[in-house]
Design a protein that fits this description.
The protein is built from three helices and 37 strands. The radius of gyration is 31 Å and the shape is globular. The two termini are 54 Å apart.
Length: 759
């Protein structure tokens, strides 16, 4: 699942660039507000109003997932500023207010800044993000060909959501230039909206999930600048989080033979009871033996309270020595009751099941410390030392009770409501502990060989001590066992030691040319996860060149190679990224920009998975129990059953990004721009499901744009802009026909017309 999600993230990356490109026309110097003087203040203002028209075809859900710019009137932009050049304002010396996106855009932002010299600095920020997601390959069952009806059963994403996040951030600094200053802060994050989800069962029903979460953060801090060249800060943070998300059965579109409305779910496996829901023509026939859902409810609210204390230091009081340090302590508590109700008929002849749980204790205690020192041995020689300490512990306990009723099929009346005693009862108490003690030391020596050339060499040493303890107690029988199915109480330990060599060079012969390169070579004697490397090589390089006043060129590369040579894993991965950007401004009338980036990601290793009746990937073989590798944290369990097959899993993805733009200003009153961007992805993965399409792994996303701005009168600017969005997925060589989900391709013409007044 992690690899499929990685491909989706790569496909959604273009959304970031698309949002940058949707501005009607890049702001030019000609449309800057005109300064006016009112009293002691210099005043500037601007407002841009207009309308957007969107003409789209193809997958509406995918367009809303990637772009989500809809038709309607908009306030594209607004600014207002007051500045007192002599710092003689009454309540403030500087005031700035700006906003954009109001009227229906998915992203709305409002900012405000106010300050009074030596008295206060205040900032306020409000953001509203409307997040629509309907990528129908995310956790979509993709049923086997032999059991799925010809009609689409899950054309949209079973995990689609349409959420709104509202974020508020307030910060106030009192006496910012005094020896003692006070900082106050508050932030609020709330997420609400409908979504869909599913649970792990034989037929994976579609659930309606009402998301409701919020977080409140409070901060108070004091800065002491009473010592020369030294700042000591103390901060207290308080965080409250609450999640009231709930799940319920989304639909009951079918009827049983006795007239009960039910849902047969989104997926059907090889089990005869699920296959019995379809006749030879693939039509739904809810026979008595079908697995069905009559009702389902799940409610698992979370409440956490996290106070944090922090002490930090910045000092240059000692000659030739720079010091910095920070210590942080936090302890969070968790309350998390759990309720789960099922009614219907499913595996094990279960017709009703009620589960209740209560988190008796849930805590996370964290100590972190950072310390850094730079010693200037000579004007050209420096010694740097960094230390980092992290120790977090998570003790927790849970009581869990399950009541189960069995039968031969779904019942009109739930047996719990008739007083029928449950067929089986279980009551289990869990106690777990997970913690990590990490220490990090880095030593570096920097040398300026000449004014234009220098280098550094260093060494990093890191240790991690991971501890896991757990047991489960059967409250009915008194039996004690370990976690994840182990027969005895669990006490697992992993110690990891990492050594890394560091080397780097830099070259700056003039202000026109700057270049740097560095490399890190690391090894580890152990690992925690299957794709965690025991050998790692990373090397980076960057060049900035300004041959003329009107030309700026830059190029960079970042290459990461990772290996884990344990024979049962054979992990081989890399992430190679390289690109360049260029800007040319030969005159005030012409501006050209061109950028290119290439990213090559690969992650190959042996993968353990549960066998099924679908054809296994080539080279698969039954598991011989080597997936655990002797590592107690890698016990091969999934859903309580041992994994019984493995293969050498392959995941690779290559992404090209190109962006070009031209801005032409033939006269001061007229400006035009033309641009084009494309993100092209070409990847592959092991075909665990022979009918699974490539999806975002093989896709192209085109984004051309054009716009014109004209000063129609003094301080009045008319703008017209056009954006085109085209997303297309190419079928993979191993894929069958993509007929079990709705197509994901789309294209859209987005036109904006606006009028800006800068005054």
């Amino acid at each position: 699942m992690k690899r499929k999600n990685s491909s989706i993230k790569l496909a959604l990356l273009p959304c970031t660039f698309a949002l940058v490109a949707i501005s009607p026309v890049a702001a030019q110097t000609a449309d800057q507000p005109t300064e006016k003087t009112i009293g002691n203040y210099v005043v500037t203002q601007s407002v841009e109003l207009g309308v957007r028209d969107t003409d789209k075809s193809g997958s509406s859900g995918m367009y809303d997932t990637f772009v989500n710019l809809q038709t309607g009137p908009r306030l594209f932009e607004q600014t207002f500023s007051l500045i007192a050049p002599e710092h003689d304002g009454a309540l403030f010396d500087d005031l700035y207010i700006s906003s954009f996106g109001w009227g229906g855009d998915p992203n709305n932002v409002a900012r405000a800044r106010a300050s009074k010299a030596k008295l206060y600095d205040f900032t306020a920020l409000f953001r509203r993000d409307q997040n629509y997601f309907d990528y129908n390959l995310l956790s979509n069952p993709l049923n086997p060909l032999s059991l799925v009806p010809a009609a689409d059963q899950a054309p949209n994403s079973p995990h689609a959501f349409y959420n709104v996040r509202r974020m508020t951030d307030l910060a106030l600094t009192l006496l910012p230039q005094s020896a003692i200053s006070v900082r106050l802060g508050y932030s609020h994050l709330r997420t609400d909206g409908p979504s869909f989800s599913s649970n792990e069962s034989s037929n994976t029903p579609l659930l309606f999930q009402e998301i409701s979460t919020f977080t409140n953060n409070y901060q108070i801090g004091v800065d002491f600048k009473v010592l020369p060249k030294t700042t000591i800060s103390y901060d207290q943070f308080l965080q409250w989080y609450r999640g009231d998300t709930s799940d319920s059965l989304s639909q009951t579109p079918f009827l049983t033979s006795n007239g009960l409305p039910v849902d047969i779910g989104n997926a059907w496996g090889p089990d005869g009871a699920t296959a019995a829901c379809f006749n030879a023509a693939g039509q739904v026939i809810v026979a008595p033996g079908c697995y069905v859902y009559q009702a389902y409810n799940r409610f698992n609210p979370y409440k956490t309270h996290t106070p944090t204390e922090q002490l930090s230091l910045q000092s240059q009081a000692i000659k030739h020595v720079d010091l910095s340090g920070r210590f942080n302590y936090s302890a969070s508590t968790l309350q998390s009751p759990y309720f789960d109700l099922f009614q219907g008929f499913t595996r094990g002849n279960v017709v009703e099941q009620i589960e209740n749980g209560t988190a008796g204790t849930g805590k996370r205690i964290s100590d972190t410390a950072d310390f850094g020192v730079t010693i200037h041995i000579t004007d050209r020689t420096r010694f740097l030392y960094s230390f980092r300490f992290l120790n977090w512990r998570m003790p927790s306990s849970l009581d869990f009770a399950t009541l189960t009723w069995t039968g031969t099929g779904a019942l009109p009346t739930p047996p719990s409501s008739t007083g029928t005693p449950p067929s089986s009862t279980s009551s289990v108490a869990y106690s777990n502990f997970l913690g990590n003690n990490m220490q990090f030391h880095q030593f570096e020596l920097e040398q300026d060989f000449t004014r234009a050339f220098g280098g550094r060499i260093g060494f990093r040493y890191k240790t991690s001590a991971i501890r896991e303890q757990g047991l489960q107690l059967d409250l009915l029988t008194g039996a004690v066992s370990g976690i994840v199915g182990q027969p005895t109480p669990t006490a697992n330990t992993i110690d990891i030691h990492e050594d890394t060599g560091i080397v780097g060079l830099w070259y700056r012969p003039s202000q026109k040319l700057r270049a740097s390169a560095d490399a890190e070579f690391g090894t580890a004697d152990n690992f925690q996860y299957r794709i965690e490397p025991r050998r790692q090589l990373q090397y980076r390089a960057r060049v900035n060149y300004k041959p003329e006043r009107w030309a700026i060129l830059s190029a960079s590369g970042n290459f990461l190679e990772q290996r884990n040579g344990v024979s049962e894993i054979a992990f081989n991965g890399h992430n190679r990224n390289a690109g360049f950007s260029s800007t040319f401004l030969p005159s005030d009338k012409f501006n050209f920009e061109l950028a290119y980036n290439y990213n090559n990601y690969q992650s190959n290793s042996f993968v353990c998975f549960q066998d099924s009746t679908v054809p296994l990937p080539p080279g698969s073989f039954p598991s011989t129990g080597i997936c655990a590798l002797g590592n107690p944290l890698l016990v091969p369990f999934l859903g309580g059953s041992p994994l019984n097959a493995e293969t050498y899993g392959v995941f690779a993805n290559r992404v090209h990004f190109v962006d070009a733009a031209v801005i032409w200003t033939p006269v001061r009153q007229v400006s035009a721009n033309l641009g084009y961007g494309i993100v092209s992805s070409n990847g592959q993965t092991s075909p665990f499901d022979p009918i699974a399409p490539s999806g975002s792994l093989r896709s192209n996303y085109h984004r051309p744009l054009a716009g014109v701005q004209v000063e129609v009168a003094k301080n009045w600017f008319a703008k017209v802009a056009w954006n085109f969005f085209d997303y297309h997925e190419a079928p993979a060589a191993f894929s069958g026909p993509d007929i079990y989900t709705s197509p994901r391709d789309f294209h859209a013409n987005v036109t904006t017309v606006s009028l800006k007044y800068a005054f």
